[in-house]
Amino acid sequence: MKLDVIKLDGGKAGSVELDEALFGLEPRADILHRVVRWQRNNAQQGTHKVKTRSETSYSTKKIYRQKGTGGARHGDRNAPIFRKGGIYKGPTPRSHGHELTKKFRKLGLKHALSAKAQEGAIVVIDTAEADGKTKVLAKLVKDLGWKRALIIDGAEVNENFAKAARNIEGLDVLPSMGANVYDILKRDTLVLTKAGVEALEARLK
Q1: Domains of the chain: total
Q2: What's the pLDDT score for residue 33?
Q3: Contact between 197 and 18 (Cβ < 8 Å)
Q4: Per-residue confidence (pLDDT) for residue 9, from 0 to 100
Q5: Distance between CA atoms of 171 and 90, rounded to whole angstroms?
Q6: Which CATH number fits the domain that encloses residue 121?
Q7: pLDDT score at 12
Q8: In a structure prediction context, what are the per-residue pLDDT tens digits for the chain, which is 205 residues long?
């Protein structure tokens, strides 16, 4: 698959050949769903917590006499049936993460890249470099028509470019090792640098 390479100012900078094994697959929704679910579950904090009847604060004195009231025989005001009593089988801190093999995660990334390629939503740029001015980069991004874009660079992101892009709404910048299925699918446009293409091909082969 051949794509034109452009510069940030919109000028042409040759072309690049994208590997069909990474960008030419028929995207499968079930694979993408499983990988995104794995990502989001691992990102969940799992710090939700309620108090059980042993943790709620109330007197332990028997609330009324055992016999003669005509009502149920209660001894503990912290029982779950009472308002402000302990919660029965409520959430406790735990990990929501589950296992997914490296092979499957790699496959998911290939399908995400292929999905963007099939949509025609991949743009390849020569380099992602800037002078650190957000205003200048924001104008370039607007002229290119990127509203919700993810830029994936090589092993490292240019520091000035990262600073310039930090405050632009809808623009994310990641190094190639940070490329993931959720972020790729979340954005409308996937922007790869030439170094990013090479790094992804080396990572996923």
Answers
A1: 2
A2: 97
A3: yes
A4: 83
A5: 39
A6: 3.40.1370.10
A7: 86
A8: 888 898 888 888 888 989 999 999 999 999 999 999 999 999 999 999 999 999 999 988 999 999 999 999 999 999 999 999 999 999 999 999 999 999 999 999 999 999 999 999 999 999 888 887 899 999 999 999 999 999 999 889 989 999 999 999 999 999 999 999 999 999 999 999 999 999 999 999 8
Neighbours of 161 (CB within 10 A): 21
Rounded Cα–Cα distance for residues 178 and 70 (Å): 67
Type of residue numbered 202: A
Statement to judge: residues 11 and 109 lie in one domain: yes
Sign of CA dihedral 123, 133, 154, 31: negative
In a shared domain, residues 196 and 116: yes
Total count of residues recorded for the chain: 205
Q: Which residue has the tokens 């020569």?
A: 126
Are 37 and 113 part of one and the same domain? yes
Give residue 68's domain range.
50-90
State residue 173 phi and psi, 5-degree precision. Answer: -125, 130
Q: Where among 90, 106, 121 does a domain terminate?
A: 90
